[in-house]
Amino acid sequence: MNNAAYNDSSLFHAPMVAQDAGHHDHHDAPPAAPATCKLGMCIFLCSEAMLFSGLISAYLVLRQGAGSWPPNFGDGIELPPMPKLLTSINTVILVSSSFVYHFAEVAVKKGKSGAGWMLLAAMMGATFVGLQCVEWTELYHEGLWFNKGGVYGSSFFTLTGFHGAHVCIGVLLILWCFYLQATKGFFTPHRHVALENVGLYWHFVDVVWVFLYTILYLV
Fold first, then answer.
1. Per-residue pLDDT tens over the stretch 94-133
2. Nearest to 160 by CA among 97, 90, 110, 96
3. Structural domain boundaries of the chain?
4. Taking 70 as the threshold, does the pLDDT of residue 16 lie above it?
């Protein structure tokens, strides 16, 4: 495979290692094609979808079996109301970050840098995590935590905690893309599969949050 073809298909744009004269290792696997990289990401996201489906299904079963939600403990414990206004603002920020990241992808495909859009998307994701930490802190001081509030508290923090961890990973991935683009101009109209894969992950995380927001705060 020539160098141009390798650059177009390589996920990490690693340089080819020169072989000793007269010696060629025919057992080296060729770099993965962009379609293969996307397929791998889609399979990974399917496994993530199964994880969140299990968690959400368990939550719905527990909620249905509780009769009233939040459950009535009958011991004088008053569970704090969910901060719907703060979370609604946070939801708008996270969902908007998907559009911002898409703008970065479009800019790269048009031959532009798109690094500014990437940084903005990462900042919006970090803002979401920060506001969620504020929400958790307020709930903790009001008496709701992992080990408080029974199944209501444990299920809420499990769902939002797993999702928050995925958002943190997504922010780090976007910052990695930003670093590569800002310092090396890594992504081009002909080489952007890693950028697209990170985008698939980020959009998935945003869609999952829409479901969580609906069942945890609205329904």
1. 999 999 999 999 999 999 999 999 999 999 999 999 999 9
2. 90
3. 37-218
4. no
Contact by Cβ (8 Å): 97, 124: yes
Which residue, chain included where needed, has tokens 């961890």?
A: 165
Homologous superfamily of domain range 37-218: Cytochrome c oxidase, subunit III, four-helix bundle (1.20.120.80)
Distance CA 171, CA 19 (A): 38
